[in-house]
Write a structure and sequence with these properties.
With 109 residues, the protein is mainly alpha-helical. The protein has 3 helices and 2 strands, in the order αααββ. A two-stranded antiparallel sheet has the order 1-2. α1 runs antiparallel to α2 (31-47).
Length: 109
């Protein structure tokens, strides 16, 4: 197997892992966890974009696969604890009325 073919295969694996991490990060129930996982995946790949050492690249890919497996387990657990959607997610619409301790959401539908 030539070096170019091996390098192309590694690049394909890296892109595939990146897409899998982004896809899995969108499965978190909580907005903050979703955004953190997405940002962490992008930052990690950007940090090691120029890595040339074949052994180091393989090591990073293995670490990424382990992180993906952890993320899959975490997303399953996060589905058990779904919270109300945040305003930044485009949650419920309407106005809040009431005093400080008894806020009531009124929908404007």
């Amino acid at each position: 197997m030539s070096m170019a073919a091996l390098k192309g295969d590694t690049a394909f694996q890296a892109r595939s892992l990146f897409r899998s991490l982004l896809r899995q990060s969108s499965q978190f129930a909580a907005y903050n966890f979703r955004e953190y996982a997405r940002r962490r995946a992008r930052d990690a790949f950007r940090e090691h974009r120029a890595e040339q050492d074949e052994g180091r690249v393989k090591e990073l890919l293995q670490k990424g696969v382990k992180e993906l497996q952890v993320m899959k387990r975490q997303t399953v657990v996060s589905q058990f604890f779904q919270l109300d959607r945040l305003v930044v997610e485009g949650g419920k619409s309407g106005k809040q009325t009431g005093d400080r301790n008894d806020i009531i959401r009124q929908t404007t539908e």
